[in-house]
Amino acid sequence: MALPCHATSSPDSLQIYIDKYDYVGARNFANRFCEKAWRNKEYLSYTKCLIAHAEMYVLVNDPEASHKLLFEGLRKVEQANLLVPQVMIRNRIGAIFAKSESYRASMKYMRSAWQLSLQTHNDSLISRCEQSIFYSYLMMHVRDSSKYFSDRIYKYAKKTKDNSEFHRAHTNICAYYFEFEEYDIGKKYLDSSVYYANRTANPQIIEDASMNAAAFYVKPFKNYAAAKKIYDKYFQDHASDTTSSAMANFYHTYSEILEKTGHPDEAITYLNKAIAIKEKAYAADRDRLVWNIESKYKIKKIEDGFAKKNKIMLIILAVLILTLILFYFYMQNTRLKQKNKLQLLQNETQQQILGATLDGQETERHKIAGVLHDNISAMLSSASLQLSAFSAGNPDKSAGVSKVREIIGMAHETVRELSHELVPVLLSKFGLAYAVNDLSERNSTDTLSIKAQMAQEAQKRFDAEFEMKVFFITSELINNVVKHSKATEAFVKIGADEGQLSVVISDNGNGFSSDTSSDGFGLTQIKARVAAMKGKINIDSKPGAGTSIHISLPIPLAPLS
């Protein structure tokens, strides 16, 4: 079915609300725009706005609402037999599943989008669908299917003879060979992707290709001199950018390059820059949370005599949360400055910094969850009671009061969901053993069985902070088994004896060389966390012989009964 032209007003206006963290305004705008676009049969604009609206819910960590919105839209476009919108929505559903690493569900919708796109004979749309499928197969480490779709994307590039498409195709093939550790072949496609990027004369594409090459020069090629030249040029071209999160990551990598090329003092300087930017990024994330909550209340300003009281409550709430956040980051900043005086480039010190950061993240989860549950929820409940009292005394204004009560209910539910996401409910209510059993069951699949065994002594409650740390260590190890081991069977055993808690995770997967000196970032985090808890970790693994990881941690005194 042919699509009419785009709507006169652009769905991109939705981004203005999102950039201001006005999610209530964004929701209202999206609803109005989608309704109008559908009524005017401007189906492509309807679909773009629907997808942007769904992405907004992903930003506020509400994937359930995002999926609900997309599935409702998919049902509408299917009933209207609109082919291109079906392709766009299905592909986006698959992408959201992929973000949560639900690759089976992701592949189901991406492949259905691709099959429908073939009926459109729109080469660009087909290629975009194939790009999504290629990336998911690559993340799943499925070699044959990854190669098949990378070849199809390359054929499209040859057909278009467009340098940007050649750049994308060669980048895909490079990623494919690097994923399967065929670095010499991948290097050729890495160089050709940079070549085609330069031919596009597009500064952004050229820059992205160069920085991509620099990353691979660092790992796996360890050509630090070549990587340094690229980073030096990038810093020269972006001298005014000293605060973005991307620049923080570049500074961090650049500090490693400087260390490897014999510039330790400069390495420390750039590492400090990276840490400083990341501190500001954490503060920005907290500010976004504050604005997200505050936006739920702004609608109340249009109501009657409660406008002034609502404004005062919002100011007090914002000041309270901002004060707590600023105090927390002031303490974090003080600790980081003290640690930065030590020898940051030595391995032991790096583990201490990483361990402190991880502890800070757990403390942050508890603090924010506590503020949301104990303070904000109580204030919302109080506001609701005040409204009830006002409604009883002013029956002529009950319609307006009902609207305010509905808004407060929505805000209360959002706060509750955020609190539960920050601290796992099963862990806080029932303890470590129950939470690990549930974690094992949720990660088991048709091809991987994960069984949890809890000793009797390990089934009692421990210190809440200790339980949280052990749970996240176990979660990360199980995640490694699911993503990398290709195992069919895994065991999680937790025991407690003589003041020590033992965690053993084993699998029958492909294993790896435990003698290697370069651990992945996830394993480095686990080692740092165990070291910070004054525990011990032993890794027993060989290629083709599975993996067994033994962790022993001292149990804090006076466990909860």
From TrEMBL:
Q: Where in the cell is it found?
A: Cytoplasm
Cellular component terms (Gene Ontology): cytoplasm; membrane
Its keywords, alphabetically, are: 4Fe-4S, ATP-binding, Cytoplasm, Iron, Iron-sulfur, Kinase, Membrane, Metal-binding, Nucleotide-binding, Phosphoprotein, Transferase, Transmembrane, Transmembrane helix, Two-component regulatory system
What SUPFAM superfamilies does this protein map onto? ATPase domain of HSP90 chaperone/DNA topoisomerase II/histidine kinase (SSF55874), TPR-like (SSF48452)
Histidine kinase domain ranges (all copies): 473-557
* Stored CDD domains: HATPase_UhpB-NarQ-NarX-like (cd16917)
Q: Which cofactor does it need?
A: [4Fe-4S] cluster
Briefly state the protein's biological role: Member of the two-component regulatory system NreB/NreC involved in the control of dissimilatory nitrate/nitrite reduction in response to oxygen. NreB functions as a direct oxygen sensor histidine kinase which is autophosphorylated, in the absence of oxygen, probably at the conserved histidine residue, and transfers its phosphate group probably to a conserved aspartate residue of NreC. NreB/NreC activates the expression of the nitrate (narGHJI) and nitrite (nir) reductase operons, as well as the putative nitrate transporter gene narT.
UniProt-recorded name of the protein: Oxygen sensor histidine kinase NreB
Organism classification? Bacteria, Pseudomonadati, Bacteroidota, Flavobacteriia, Flavobacteriales
